[in-house]
Specification:
Pfam families: Laminin_G_3. This is LamG-like jellyroll fold domain-containing protein. It comes from marine sediment metagenome. By secondary structure, the protein is mostly beta strands. It is built from 1 helix and 15 strands.
Amino acid sequence: LNGAFDFGEIDENHSYIIIPDSAALSITGDLSIAFTMKRDGDNASENLICKGITDGQRSYSVMSTNGGKLHFWITATGDSADREYCEAVGVLADSSWQHITVTYDADGDGGDGLMKAYIDAVEKTFTPSGTIPSSIHDSTEGLTIAHGLTTNYLAGKLDNIMIFNKVLTQNEANWLHNQGVGREQFEDDALCVDGFTGKPYLNGGGNTAKNGWII
């Protein structure tokens, strides 16, 4: 939290980050995104983490919207017209830190996709817009943080951003929430990759952290 990215306040010219496309970010199946966030206010629509911002090149996105809503969408075709999402209403606070985890299970709903959301490790009602696809489009565009589409800049702070090619459990979401460090180790074999160096990340014990991507 002391090293969080600060993307400015409401009505300022906002900054954002773009991470180039890589194999670690081109996830087409199971996906989890975890991060810590502090919003500066209840704004209309803010993109938090977005893979691909050009129509035809979109993959997945996490957004906050007014009314304290958390919005997580994917598209199987890359087109915005084909995206499906889940939304949790009234779960995001203003001006206080929260740990957010969203998960996508590619075949978790009888062959269709299944999404879940955890706020400070507590599962929230996540209402789908329709049938969630069983795969995600493989965009060749980068990952944008705090900005997406043509506007939708974030006014607030983000920290401990992690992207996983697996479905995190509630226990794992709780562990991340309680650690708040961003150097975690999980059970499977996929490496946890530093988003800036592209090198495997080490946990506090000097061992290679696994299962994701982190900045």
